[in-house]
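Take one record.
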Amino acid sequence: MDIDERTRSEIDRRLERLESEYGAFPVREERVTNEPAFFEQGVELVREGWIGDAGAWVTDAADRALLIRHEDGPERWGTPGGGHEPGETMAETARREVREETGLEPTLTGVCFARRKTIVHENDPERRFRMLTVIFEGDVDVDAGDVSEKTIEIEDDEILEARWFEADDPPEAVHGFLEERVEDWAETE
């Protein structure tokens, strides 16, 4: 089985398991082309057991959303999340990343969406592999009065800021994959 078939099969298996545990959720399809050196880095990660990344849209009892700014995209806010480590489920990845980036322990309650991405070699379109991104829905078991910016503990040097946002005052700039979720959340107010 080649790397494309292996990653496709693994992602299908993970998506089926997530749907079984959390119910139906949207799966977005994306295709990107990588230059050769970057493509080979991805192939090496896949050989080591990496399958993608995961994060979580985390809210509290007052429906505030926990968002972060990362050094790779400091002008936009996004969900806490990051790279899958071999041996983890996608849920374990999301919980670990939220903990590392904010110090908070979320309870995952659903899947907001998943993205299945096909990575294609720039010079050889027949060479490809797949990766999976899963953004979970989650919450933290605290009252808004008990949570402040002081309780957020950033343990990741790449995180510039993490904070709670109110639905009636969402951030102006968020990463593209999150725009629809922020709009839906802000409309509930």
The radius of gyration is 17 Å. The domain at 3-187 is CATH 3.90.79.10 (Nucleoside Triphosphate Pyrophosphohydrolase). The chain has one domain: 3-187. DSSP finds four helices and seven strands in the chain.
